[in-house]
Amino acid sequence: MTPSTQGSGRYDVIVIGAGHNGLAAAALLGKSGRKVLVVERRAIIGGVAAGEEFHPEYRTAGLLHDSSTLCVDMLSTLQLARHGLSLTKEPAAVFMPHLEGPGLLLSRDAGNAGQELGASSNGDAKAYAEYRTFLASIRNFVQRLLGAPPPDLYGDGFSSLMPLVRHGIAMRRLGRDTMMELMRIVPMPIEDYLNERFESDVLKAALAAPGIYGTFMGPRSPGGMGSLLRYECMAGAAVVGGPASLIAALESSAESHGVEIRTSAEVVGIRDDADVAVGVTLADGNEIDASVVVSSCDPKRTISWLRSTTEDTVLLKRQIQNFRTRGTTAKVNLALSGPLRFSCRPDLTIEHARIGETLDYLEHAFDAVKYRKFSESPILDICVPTVAAPDLAPAGHSVASILVHFAPHHLDPAWDNRSRDALGDTVVATLERYAPNIRKMIVGKEVLTPADIADRYGLSGGHIYQGEHGLDQLLIRPTPQCVRYETPIKGLFLGGSGSHPGGGITCAPGVLAAKTVIG
Amino acid sequence: MSKSYDAIIIGGGHNGLVCAAYLARAGRRVLVLERRHVLGGAAVTEELYPGFKFSVCSYVVSLFRPHIIRELSLPEHGLDMIPLECSFLPLPNGDSLCRWADAQDTRREIARFSAKDAEVAPEFSMAMTKLSYFARDIIESTAPDPASIDPREMIKLLRLGKRFKSLGADMMQLNMQLMTMSAVDFLDLWFESEVLKAPMSVSGIIGTFLGVRSPSTAYVLLHHYMGEIDGAFRSWGFCRGGTGALSLSVASAARNFGADIRTEMDVERILVEHGEARGVVLADGTEFRSKTVVSGLDPHRTFLRLVGESNLDPSFTTKIKRYKMRGSSGKVNLAVDRLPEFTCRPKGSAHLRGDIAIAPSIDYLERAYDQAKYGDFSERPYLNVVIPSLVDPSLAPPGKHIVSCFVQYAPYAIKEGPEFWPQRREAFGDAVVDTLAEYCPGLKESILFRQVLTPWDLEQDFGLTEGNIFHGELSPEQLLFQRPVSGWAKYRTPIRHLWMCASGTHPGGGIMGAPGELAAKTMLRTRSV
């Protein structure tokens, strides 16, 4: 290796992006004895998991607020607990407020949920318990699929399909009925499947929504069950303090392994020499050398940095254009002068709530983006991080972190201040129907359209998962050449949400990429 | 009735007849019982109005397996196919796109909208052809069963895996994309012009209750792309004498092999004794006994009506009940006193000698779907129109024509309830005629006769449950080893000696003949008949 011209020391690995995946990869690589530099474009670390002040004295716990999909077992060697990470005893129950009726507080624990469900439908209480039992029966198998690099499509010969065969054997071990059921339901629309099991539309809507986040799908779109099962089999306990606390623990762990993190360091190019990565170029002109570059940025952006013109790279550049990154999510952060309360159950402390009480509501919300409009009645996925972390806001005040589905990146006409305001108004008006005094409580408001998300976080199409969770893009992510974190450029690895097993606060792509580098 | 048969086939649709012909050819004594007065099921020609012969339901043929035509010598029994010459897309702005049988002509037409698309069109065709060949292997044999521990099945799976692997990474990816992507997303991989993508994408939604942007519709695209006549992939055709002529040629072949085929025989139930099928009972009480019974009806009708839940294991009944029918299309047949004239191409009629698509944009198609999703028929639907009398003058009096309009979406379960379809039938017919008349202004005045078939009518008149033209949706969870339900995808049923042979089994719907053929061959191979 040639010494760096900048005298900044020599690095074995450069990790691009200090999001949860980048930091997880960096920490593992640091632990393996490599000298690691993380370069982050923004002035703060954390990416979509970064906690930020959005209004004086009010902070969020991340653009994404659901930390329950963290693959905590895959991070065990980092001993994050020593670095301050703690997990909740159980995932927060989701409250579904209703315009009429008492709403539904849905816990993942069937026993707890049973009482709530029994109030409206005894059949559903039983069906819900059965559904949870079914999910438990496939959980290990699905986690096995998600927790390992996918089979190699470009490998030579039949033997490269061995991982697939091994998965097949593991699937057979589920038993014939479970295996057949799994194969049957993965390509199904969420609505059809939930209709088979449940009666109450409220319950169905409550269960369906996470399956369509980060997709270009509604509950009636085939393949939604694949995305939903992925979510259900990953989701477990959440991080106390939300994604921002995870970032703090990862940062601390990484630094303990000698990882250097440099913020306000924007990558503008990946240097390659005859299809071998030799380092990166920063926006300030600095060139940093390393024989390994792990990018946790989205694959489209990463590949656009390549200069090589070899056949493989040209093919890759073409293939990556077909990776769908149509952002459909917006974000609204509200600074509130008091706790969020819903009129249908005023005494309930709200930590996690969702608006979207029927499957048709969800489907209508999706319809809008097909016509390049944002939904007039959007699905609101609401997290109140101040319940668990009151210090995010002044005493007695609270923060509502709201992910808004669906709002298209390619709005027609394009996003501007007026349409951003209109989106913010739509969200508040939607919320107001269920929480009538919310408007009076709003001290501050931040609205991020998908275009804003694209700009701030450097995500192509403003896609919160770096790429849609369509079934095809969950199976092959992001392109056949790059499914196993390696790229045609020797020494360049992909390790962000745009790689298997996809987006959300999981850290799995970062861990798997790091493991690939370590070998 | 004392005469005993080896096999009784319920339903004289094209699959029932194909199955009958193959069984009779192997020397089995076969009886076919058809409820209606005409043979053909949904592949039927009827003179609904004096001098006008309509392909009442199915109106073009593409998927019918060429080897069936050969093995049953159908041309000798009157089968004559006329290839479609053009696929014509009129546009609201007065422009239009013609995709001709000749590739160069088509290229020139596409280039008017996008030079890039014209350039990649052959590349797309090539990829689809490769995919078709892979898919053809699958549709030409019984479905592999991934749960089976039978070594033969495992070898079959491995062989399939090996073949899959030999496609190369790009084609493997394409195959997976095909099975999971939406038709529009799939076409986006190649094309930019909506004028091309919109009419191409509709192949992905025909007969499904999905939109062109719904994932998994790309597969149906291929299903329709595979059509072949005389061994040539991708050619669609009319049947001289209407689609019913195809059924009649198969019936003639079957009779020639000794099959007994009777019409106006309404089978009310299947005789099940000690868990075995022993024959059938007609509505008038007549009984026919046989060694085996083969149902050419859809799975719902077969099991829930003719067999009856009391004869079935409850878990099987549950699976059959959740098998999705959900018809989404209708049909409007018109007799007109002159050739329709499209404003955008007033001269000549060459562009009308194929199919005509009313599919002006992807948003238009999605809006049509969105309306149906919430329980209405599309006010501005997707139409696939043919004027078969232009190429086959025997179908209408001189100078006059028949206009056949396939319509989507017409959901079976309209929000008032399916039984309210008769009250909305004419409004639906008006929506179709109004839509078409926007492109050919003189149409309304030229109509002599109009037949409107809603999904309700398809169910009542043709016995298609919920009006589904494919005997069940062609969605991934209802294909291959899962059609109609996993464990029973090889034409056998849980009732001994009862078999299935129609579109509700692998490889699915369309005038393909494959289910009937594969069922017969499976029965013969396993010496079950």
Description:
The complex is a heterodimer of chains A (519) and B (529). Chain A has 519 residues and is an alpha/beta fold. Chain A has helices at 20-31, 110-120, 122-146, 162-172, 176-185, 190-197, 201-212, 224-234, 243-256, 299-304, 311-321, 359-370, 417-434, 438-441, 450-457, 471-475, 508-518; strands spanning 13-16, 36-39, 53-55, 58-59, 94-96, 104-106, 260-262, 267-273, 276-282, 287-289, 292-295, 329-336, 352-355, 379-383, 398-405, 442-448, 492-494. Chain A is built from 17 helices and 17 strands. In chain A, the strands form 5 sheets. Chain A has a 5-stranded parallel β-sheet with strand order 7-2-1-11-17, covered by helices on one side. In chain A, strand 5 and strand 6 form a beta hairpin. In chain A, helix 2 (110-120) packs antiparallel against helix 3 (122-146) and helix 3 crosses helix 8. The model of chain A is unreliable at 1-8 (pLDDT under 50). Chain B folds into 3 domains: 5-46 and 56-82 and 240-323 and 469-525, FAD/NAD(P)-binding domain (3-Layer(bba) Sandwich); 100-233, no CATH class; 326-465, Alpha-Beta Complex (Polyamine Oxidase, Chain A, domain 2). Chain B is 36% helix and 19% strand. Chain B has helices at 14-25, 66-71, 103-111, 115-139, 151-166, 169-180, 183-188, 194-201, 217-225, 243-256, 299-307, 314-322, 362-373, 421-437, 443-446, 455-462, 514-525; strands spanning 5-10, 30-33, 45-49, 52-55, 81-83, 86-90, 96-100, 228-229, 232-233, 237-239, 260-262, 267-273, 276-282, 287-295, 329-336, 355-358, 382-386, 401-408, 447-453, 498-500. Chain B is globular and about 65 Å long. The interface between A and B is large, with 39 and 35 residues.
